[in-house]
Amino acid sequence: QVQLVESGGGLVQPGNSLRLACAASGLTFSTCIMGWFRQAPGKERDFVGGISWNGRYTDYAASVQGRFTIPRDNAKDTAYLQMSNLKPEGTAVYYCNRRDYKYPWGQGTQVTVSS
């Protein structure tokens, strides 16, 4: 049974940084292309960024390019979303999944960017 557990969200002021974590179990994490997604209130879930199985390749939505990065640690079956220079429009519930969102969604972690 695949489980994806996101953590690390919270309230942060605009311009600050935050790191989210995605702990995976029940899958061969080291072979998965992983992605981060977010869903703002009243909006659809959007792609934020993705990372190849070996971490060599990443891609990002234009709205976060240059501010977000996605490290991963295959030894810990964990992917991260390092967010910097956060903006109020980044307020959303953040989720991780395989980049093709094959697996059931986790509960997500709430990020609120507000002064």
Fill in the keyword field for this structure:
115 residues; mainly beta; 6-stranded mixed beta sheet; 5-stranded antiparallel beta sheet; 0% helix; globular
Give an account of the 3D structure.
The protein is an all-beta fold and 115 residues long. Helix content is 0%, strand content 47%. The chain is built from no helices and 11 strands. The protein has strands at 3-7, 10-12, 18-25, 34-39, 45-51, 58-60, 68-69, 72-73, 78-83, 92-98, 109-113. Strands 2-11-10-4-5-6 form a 6-stranded mixed beta sheet, with no helix packed on it. A hairpin with a 6-residue loop joins strand 5 (45-51) and strand 6. The termini are far apart. The model has no long low-confidence stretch (mean pLDDT 97).
Average pLDDT, rounded to a whole number, is 97
Gross morphology: globular
| Amount of helix | under 10%
Beta content comes to: over 45%
Q: Which strand order does the major sheet show?
A: 2-11-10-4-5-6
How far is the first residue's CA from the last residue's CA? 40 Å
Structural class from helices and strands? mainly beta
Poorly predicted tracts of residues: none
String of helices and strands: EEEEEEEEEEE
- Strand runs, count: 11
